[in-house]
Amino acid sequence: MSSLRLILxxxxxxxxxxxxxxxxxxxxxxxxxxxxxxxxxDSPAVRVALGDIEREFPGRDxxxxxxxWMAHDVKAAPLKTLQGLAWRSGFESGExxxxxxxxxxxxxxxxxxSGLRLAVYSSGSADAQRLLYGYSSNGDLTPLFEAFYDLDxxxxxxxxxxxxxxxxxxxxxxxxxxxxxVGAELDAAQEAGCATCQLIRPEDGTKPAPGFRHAxxxxxxxxxxxxxxxx
Length: 231
Ligand SMILES: CSCCC(=O)C(=O)COP(=O)(O)O
Ligand SMILES: [Mg+2]
Prior knowledge:
EC number: 3.1.3.77
Protein name: Enolase-phosphatase E1
CATH architecture of the largest domain: 3-Layer(aba) Sandwich
Strand order of the largest sheet: 3-2-1-4-5-6
Pfam families: Hydrolase
Subunit structure: Monomer.
Bound molecules: ligand L4RZE5RM, magnesium ion
């Protein structure tokens, strides 16, 4: 029997195709960010994000910096906050729907129904994570998750972030299985003591990182770790 109590999931490249992020989400944010920065300039979240950019890149046009980050898929906290704000109207109006990998919803439901705990850990802001799972093509999946962790808890390539997540969940790291497509994130989780598995999604062209278990989808994760499989 598995000693795992909580499955911690990355999003991009793990439950959501990288192509969806690059071809749908990022262009939507790029189109809507100029208006958002103008119209919500006084909102505290926008002010903090712009202030962070100004501190890191004094004198730089913030929009140009945001566009540079998006072009290189840099997981910068101010960008992630502002993208989350930009996507809100798209998800709420029905213009955006998250097309998760088809194996994701059945696996999450089977794991949740069996009593396993589920949480998200993504560079996308916690608000954006809730939108994405709240407005997915498979309906609202947010009730399946007990927590949504983002970069506020620390970087995904830093072992202490996983120690902190384990502590907040009231679990030993060994009771957590972290699923991600990125080797450096799995390295950090493994250093903290978590079980790990790298998702090698053929559609994303993920390269297998040495030293980890690999799976092509969540069904294969379930088989490898003795987790329930949807009927
Ligand atoms: C709500 S997450 C949207 C995708 C995104 O912007 C992102 O940075 C995801 O990165 P991850 O850490 O999930 O690989
Ligand atoms: Mg990822």
